[in-house]
Amino acid sequence: MPLQPISGLLKLVRMPANTLPAFITETHQNPDLAHLCMQMFYVLLALGERDFALDMQARALKLRRLYRLDGPEQPAIRLLALMAQGDMLDNTPLEFLIEHSDIQLDLLYLLPDQPLPTDIPEHDVLMVAIGESDKNRPLLLQAQTLLSAWPRPVLNPAHAILNCARDTAYQLLHDIAGLLMPRTQRLEREDIREQRFPFTIRPVDTQGGTGLTKIDTPSALDAYFERFSHSAYFVADYVDYQNDDGLFRKLRIVLIGGEPFICHVAISENWMVHYLSAGMENSESKRAEEAALMENFERSFALRHGAALRNIARRLGLDYVVLDCAETADARLLLFEVDSRAWIHSTDNVDIFPYKPAVMQKAYDAFRALLWQRLAAP
């Protein structure tokens, strides 16, 4: 199918800032309005204008629901991703997995209560890239029906993505041997007042730590409700995973075809660990520890927790899923969340993080091998 490629977010964030105006000008010369609007969606995301970007995407999807990202001229694998309207908070950011590969990526958007377009591009593998959320749940149920007899291999079946809901994941995984997963419940406001302190709370359908807070007292809970007034929240038992040196360590691991690959290690003074706020770029000792753990991952962390990781993959039933986890003082795997949307990437400055590209390439190679494996299966 002759689709004009669009430059994705990854290419745009790597683009020198002084070339972006010319790129935008050239984009606006395109008479294809759907292409123009979708391209501006990515440009505006790269500029941090999320609301404006989503408006452009909505305009594009009224005109067309199929788009192709920049890729190889002679692809070896054609991957079709089933997408929801939204950005990286709503879909698996696949373009970061296939940079510099021979994989062609087409994006097919599924809209509520609308059939798929009549013309579907030829592809080798389809992957459901729609992330789990209340907003996307109807789409995932719709996709489950649409794909029940799909004539090509399907990765991350829609019904399995629903297992990523925080409370559902807890019910599925918490009794795995060697695993500690904080008890997680979906509760309304009044039910939360009956919980034992301390606990963590976050509004349903939030990501990236938005609204995530540790609650120690009833007054702190009252103050929290004043700031975050929602209909439902995820409430989890608080587990103290601080190490003897006073620091908290959180690992991001991706399971690809059931096999674990390390993506980063964030080391922070705060219990709510996020890589971007952990100060890794400013601490040589933190980076040295991350480099050592990433280099020895298969012989250390993955070996110690191999059985638990395999059981997580088996119970979730997902071909591709990202875990945020840590290790307890008694050497158990501490699992915070599972998500098919979580971001793994190679965008860190190689002058500061020279050890990352080779480690991340292992995950990218595994993803490509998974596609080939499914493509070759009967």
Q: How would you describe this protein?
A:
It is globular, with a radius of gyration of 21 Å. Helices cover 33% and strands 21% of the residues. It has helices at residues 9-14, 20-27, 33-46, 50-63, 137-146, 158-161, 166-173, 189-192, 218-227, 284-295, 301-304, 306-316, 356-376, and strands at 5-6, 66-69, 77-83, 103-109, 125-128, 154-155, 179-180, 184-187, 199-203, 213-215, 233-237, 248-256, 259-268, 320-327, 333-339. The mean pLDDT is 96. α3 (33-46) runs antiparallel to α4 (50-63). A hairpin with a 5-residue loop joins β14 (320-327) and β15. It has 13 helices and 15 strands. The two termini are 25 Å apart. By secondary structure, it is of the alpha/beta class. A six-stranded mixed β-sheet has the order 1-2-4-3-5-6, covered by helices on one side. A five-stranded mixed β-sheet has the order 7-15-14-12-13. Strands 8-11-9-10 form a four-stranded antiparallel β-sheet.
Element order: H for helix, E for strand: EHHHHEEEEHEHHEEHEEHEEEHHHEEH
> Alpha-carbon distance between the termini?
25 Å
Number of helices: 13
Question: What oligomerization state is this entry in?
Answer: single chain
Radius of gyration: 21 Å
**Helix content percent band:** 25-40%
Major beta sheet summary: 6 strands, mixed
Strand content: 15-25%
Biggest sheet: strand arrangement: 1-2-4-3-5-6
Specify the overall morphology: globular
Residue-averaged pLDDT, rounded?
Answer: 96
The total count of strands amounts to 15
Show unreliable segments: none
Structural class: alpha/beta
